[in-house]
Amino acid sequence: MNSYSKIGLEQKKILKGKKIYSKGEKAFFAYYIHAGKVNIYSPGGLLLGQIGEGEIFGERGPSLDESRSVTAEAATNVILYPISEQTLKEKISKADPVIRAILRSLLLRLNDINTKSEEFWRSLNVMASLTEEKK
Questions:
Q1: Which of 10, 5, 6 is nearest to 82 (CA)?
Q2: What is the spatial order of strands in the sheet that 78-84 belongs to?
Q3: Global confidence as pTM
Q4: Averaged pLDDT for residues 45-56
Q5: Domain residues of the chain, as ranges?
Q6: Bridge partners of 39?
């Protein structure tokens, strides 16, 4: 038994290429990556980033009571520990008010950056297609 099992976290194994969650789904959990890597995609399919062992993802939705804004997919076989919405909110509520404000600000900025990245990507694709037509 590892230290995560002792505090009630159940291990979840996901095979490479499988979706962990999709944009628009209700967010019940954040996830701690014990092993492996996870790709995060924008609604239009732009790879926004890859995260790995020791990192947490999926915290924005449950923290802000919003649905998923991105899609998460296993880049490799991955072992995750789901962190429930209740646990996440309890930990946030016990944090110093300044830390709570910083966290909320960062979560809102993350969503904004993801949206702007996809808009930029779409603009580049339009410009590239126009350039190709001129040749």
A1: 10
A2: 12-14, 78-84, 29-35, 56-57
A3: 0.74
A4: 93
A5: 3-134
A6: 50, 73
What is the per-residue pLDDT across 76-127, written as a single tens digit (0 to 9) for each?
Answer: 999 999 999 999 889 888 989 898 888 888 888 887 787 777 777 777 767 7
Q: How far apart are CA 118 and CA 104, in angstroms?
A: 22
Share of the chain above pLDDT 90, in %: 48
Alpha-carbon span 2 to 19, nearest angstrom? 26
Judged against a pLDDT cut of 50, whether residue 5 lies above it is answered with no
Contact 47, 7 (CB under 8 A): no
Looking up tokens 């998923």 gives 68
CATH fold label, 3-134: Jelly Rolls (2.60.120)
The single residue listed with the structure tokens 């944090």 is: 95
What tokens appear for 11 in the block?
Answer: 């291990």
In this predicted structure, the answer to whether residue 132 has a pLDDT above a threshold of 90 is: no
